[in-house]
């Protein structure tokens, strides 16, 4: 039996998430649909203002004739909800338009969470039932042309505004439809933005700028929602405007602030699994497109072999992201993915190829307070005793002030970059030793 949600032990749920609100809205919605049919109007051509005016007039008449005991404020709330229902995306429309919301997570029709500044919170938003939730989801998917039904119960797609939606419905989701929407800023983060948010220090920004401009190959490593894509967007601003950049992703999320970018996106295939185009296929093809740099949105499959080969054979300055909890774990994951992809050589040859291809691993993390911080800058220095050698240049070690507040601090370990790409920049007018805080 459906029950109203309560967000406090003492206070009842707000009117917009009460069962009374849902009952009135559902009955009024049916009435509006009937009136639209009776009028024979071309509803699809109505402007939002016209729809809002129509809802206001019809709802006032509906509540008066039915003698529904609600006040003016409650009537206004129902009218706004019905306008969003007819002209937009229902209960989550305001969340989709809120620039502070990073993720919208719907766990069944009664349970909605959002992420703001890296922190999840449950909010007083609900759908009438699973059918209502599915209707809104299909409206979101309609412009994309993606199918969602029992024969295709999972969808992962890019939204027209650049965000991403993932939907799982019964029988795979046991408690009703599960919807995950990841939103992206319309204007990508710049290095200055990340410094302002405390993600990195000026010294780390200088190091990363020098590494990108010196065509070092960089992997951004981190967990889910740690800020890998935002950091990759920021790093791309250091790429010279004279270079051609090709981005390859499963679901296009990168929005590089660069004048010459070619964006490629994989294709999952049709209903019978035909027509699949993987990231690995795109990476192979991109080598014939005269790229100066290749940026892989996320390395998580067989494409790791093509990426390592590209980085080792003339496409210096390439970048990508990978899911890993530490720089060493990142190296282990590269080896594992290469093994799954059918790498035929020995362990030593694979590690040698990784050591030759990757110059830096930038580890980023989302802390318990929701803040996103670069926690380590690690350089790959070579291969010794069949182990990939690394040196950590910077490490995030915050300290606690006497008043209990926490202050970010990045410790330089007193090491200069080992890469010959950066060593070539040691010349008149560029003092690398002064550039890095050592």
From TrEMBL:
<dbReference type="InterPro" id="IPR050921">
    <property type="entry name" value="T4SS_GSP_E_ATPase"/>
</dbReference>
<dbReference type="GO" id="GO:0016887">
    <property type="term" value="F:ATP hydrolysis activity"/>
</dbReference>
<dbReference type="InterPro" id="IPR001482">
    <property type="entry name" value="T2SS/T4SS_dom"/>
</dbReference>
<feature type="domain" description="Bacterial type II secretion system protein E">
    <location>
        <begin position="86"/>
        <end position="367"/>
    </location>
</feature>
<dbReference type="Pfam" id="PF00437">
    <property type="entry name" value="T2SSE"/>
</dbReference>
<keyword id="KW-0378">Hydrolase</keyword>
<dbReference type="InterPro" id="IPR027417">
    <property type="entry name" value="P-loop_NTPase"/>
</dbReference>
<comment type="similarity">
    <text>Belongs to the GSP E family.</text>
</comment>
<protein>
    <submittedName>
        <fullName>CpaF family protein</fullName>
        <ecNumber>3.6.1.-</ecNumber>
    </submittedName>
</protein>
